[in-house]
Each structure stands twice: as C-alpha cells, then as structure tokens.
C-alpha cells in the first residue's frame, strides 16, 4: 500500500476585521452602448489537474477540513505526496461546500507525472474550507514503463 504524506506547508491567518459582506456584483463598462454584468455564481469551487482515465488507480483519497473561528481569513498551501514510485495522472480537489461559500483552490506544482501535488486554498473571510481530494495514477513498479 502506498503511504501518503500530507504537509500543510503554510497556513496564515490575517487579524483584520471586516464587518460588511463583500460586494458580490460587478459591472464593467465596455463602451458607451454596452455593459457587462458579472455575478458570483453560487456553485462549488473545484480544481481538476490532468486527465483521468478508466485505467487509473486511486492512489489516495482524503477529506481536508479546516474550520475558522470567524475572525480571520485562511490562506493555505497544501502539499500531498504519495510515497513510492508512482505516476500521477490526475488530481481532483472537490469543494464540499455547495452554496458557493467554499474556498478557492489553485494549482501550484507537481501533479501529472510526479508523485506529489501542491495547491493553494483561499477561504472567504470568516470561513474555513472542506475539500475532498482524490489522486489517481499508477505505480511505476507494477506497470513497468507505462507512459501517458
């Protein structure tokens, strides 16, 4: 069985206090006769790295949850390493908060072709995060020289 080492590399909390909810509607004036209106969509914030195949094995899956006391903003860098000789083909970071209030994950490094993945997480002020992470790929020792 492949062991997984998880390292929360960086976790910062700001101590500034915000009392108003941030503006969730933005308008952009393109020219005199047209206007574009943007709104935050109340959907989950997922991150997909690589392309999954039916041939891929689940190397690891885990829930990563961080609660917040409501008095700070959480920014974290998460590194997940699969020990052993493996080739990651895809990573799914799935936001488990369905109302659009979840955190935003962003890719930093690793992933496809490596045995680790690094991603940043930025939560809304006063909120934590709840992600389900699934890492797929194959063992290089068992499959020989298989390449994608």
Automatic annotation (TrEMBL):
Residues 1-16 form the signal peptide. Keywords: Signal. Pfam families: MBF2. InterPro entries: MBF2. This is Uncharacterized protein.
């Amino acid at each position: 069985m492949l062991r997984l080492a998880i390292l929360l590399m960086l976790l910062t909390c700001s101590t500034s206090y915000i009392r108003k909810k941030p503006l969730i509607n933005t308008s952009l004036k393109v020219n005199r006769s047209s206007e574009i209106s943007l709104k935050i969509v109340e959907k989950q914030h997922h991150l997909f790295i690589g392309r999954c195949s039916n041939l891929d094995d689940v190397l690891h899956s885990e829930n990563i949850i961080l609660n917040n006391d409501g008095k700070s903003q959480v920014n974290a860098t998460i590194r997940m390493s699969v020990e052993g000789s493996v080739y990651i083909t895809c990573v799914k970071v799935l936001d488990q908060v369905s109302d659009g209030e979840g955190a935003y994950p962003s890719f930093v490094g690793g992933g496809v072709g490596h045995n680790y993945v690094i991603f940043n997480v930025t939560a809304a002020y006063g909120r934590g995060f709840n992600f389900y992470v699934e890492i797929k790929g194959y063992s290089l020792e068992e499959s020989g020289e298989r390449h994608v």
